[in-house]
């Protein structure tokens, strides 16, 4: 056998080996692929969303189905200008298909006396509240925006959004113009029992010019450095008034995993949620803050706040 023939034979054997190896790999890959169940995303039917939400739905080119509600029922002026609803007074919800149903995200226009009903209804229908803030200064009446999120069956999610918007409409049907203050009396400055409040909260209480205040620090990191309560990472509550009728306002710091639990607990205790937002950018873990306001007997307010602290502890253990 000459050298050329020998070289050819070696190359032929190598080529055959490579083909065999590729064939085996292809077969293995095919078996592996066949073992993985199909996870195809099914497009959403806009008619399903229309029927479930009671609002005409539109299908976008990206497969997202959207519904909208323009708040034409309450005139709003901003900086002296009567604001047309298309300039930022529209509620909307967008539904995106997922492998297990759909995800909804949305922004809901709320006036101050509508928020409790809107938030409670969102919670009752399995939706999350992810932000509450203003978009304007010098608006009359003051207008806010509640952001929502949810995952699940598309029709069920749409029914939830419909219920939230319906709860808002019900508030306006009872009183066309937004209220100017929360229901209940206005507390008068008087005696607040610091010992009783401290015992109920399980925390030390400071008396600052007749205001009882409790602060609880949490931690995070930023730029590789530990940050804590002295840099603003605190939950706090302040009591003003008397033992019989007080106002309790404050700020609750939360990690993402416990936001919903804290909101649920505060609402169950009768506190009004007045803001939900972030204070920082780039911290790890990310922290969020909800501001609240409540009125009632001071001890009841303390116990309600304590229930939110306890709900947070439970949520923190569920990773």
UniProtKB/TrEMBL annotation:
- Key words, A-Z: Lipoprotein
A Pfam family this chain is assigned to: DUF1529
**Species, as recorded:** mine drainage metagenome
Lipoprotein as a keyword of this entry, yes or no, is yes
The protein here is known as Putative conserved lipoprotein lpqo
């Amino acid at each position: 056998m000459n050298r050329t023939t020998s070289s050819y034979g070696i190359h032929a054997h190598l080529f055959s080996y490579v083909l065999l190896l590729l064939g085996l790999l292809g077969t293995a890959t095919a078996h592996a692929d066949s073992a993985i169940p199909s996870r195809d995303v099914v497009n959403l039917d806009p008619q399903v969303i229309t029927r479930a939400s009671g609002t005409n739905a539109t299908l976008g080119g990206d497969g997202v189905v959207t519904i909208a509600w323009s708040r034409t029922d309450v005139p709003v002026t901003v900086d002296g200008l009567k604001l047309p609803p298309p300039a930022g007074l529209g509620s909307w919800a967008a539904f995106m298909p997922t492998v297990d149903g759909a995800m909804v995200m949305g922004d809901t226009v709320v006036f101050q006396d509508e928020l409790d009903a809107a938030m409670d209804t969102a919670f009752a229908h399995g939706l999350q509240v992810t932000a509450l803030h203003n978009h304007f200064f010098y608006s009359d009446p003051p207008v806010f925006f509640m952001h929502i999120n949810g995952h699940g069956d598309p029709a069920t999610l749409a029914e939830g959004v419909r219920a939230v918007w319906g709860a808002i409409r019900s508030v306006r049907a009872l009183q066309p113009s937004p209220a100017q203050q929360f229901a209940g009396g206005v507390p008068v400055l008087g005696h607040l029992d610091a010992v009783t409040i401290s015992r109920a909260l399980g925390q030390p209480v400071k008396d600052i010019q007749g205001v009882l205040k409790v602060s609880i620090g949490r931690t995070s990191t930023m730029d590789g450095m530990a940050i804590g309560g002295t840099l603003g990472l605190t939950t706090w509550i302040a009591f003003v008034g008397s033992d019989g009728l007080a106002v309790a306002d404050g700020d609750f710091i939360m990690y993402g995993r416990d936001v919903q639990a804290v909101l649920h607990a505060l609402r169950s205790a009768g506190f009004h949620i007045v803001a939900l937002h972030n204070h920082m950018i780039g911290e790890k873990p990310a922290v969020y803050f909800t501001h609240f306001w409540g009125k009632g007997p001071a001890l009841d307010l303390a116990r309600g706040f304590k229930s939110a602290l306890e709900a947070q502890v439970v949520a923190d253990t569920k990773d």
